[in-house]
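Aim 2 progress update. The chain analyzed this quarter is reproduced below.
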Amino acid sequence: MSSIFIKPFRPVLYLFVLVNLLCLLLSVFFTKQDINPWVVASTNLLLFGISMFSLQQQLKQSKNSNPHAMVRGVMSTVVLKLFVLGSAAIVYLYNAGENKSINAIFLGMGLYIMYTWLEVKLSLKINQSGKDGGN
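Predicted structure tokens:
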């Protein structure tokens, strides 16, 4: 039963672990490129949490007979991710002062795009399997 629950979340979990491993293993390289690995890892954690919440909601909404419920769910979490990441970036840039890492912000934007693409792809798969009766 737990593998049925975890299976839709595997790609997001793999991306989360991969990015964190890269932040740990390549931290010296990142630092030389003026990329703060802690900012990238924090962004990764925020995106992972929101994506897991979103996919959990998609699993619940997949049983809904209204086809617009899935679209509303995906769009609302995309906007939620955008506002949370935008707010976090503004707070970081305001508080970091001279030590700010603009390159880490750009990497965070890339992660946002990757998580959003993966979430939409998985949401469509969840919705399709929910309409097929779980096959």
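Residues 104 and 110 are 10 Å apart (CA to CA). The two ends are 15 Å apart (CA to CA). These observations will guide the mutagenesis experiments scheduled for the next reporting period.
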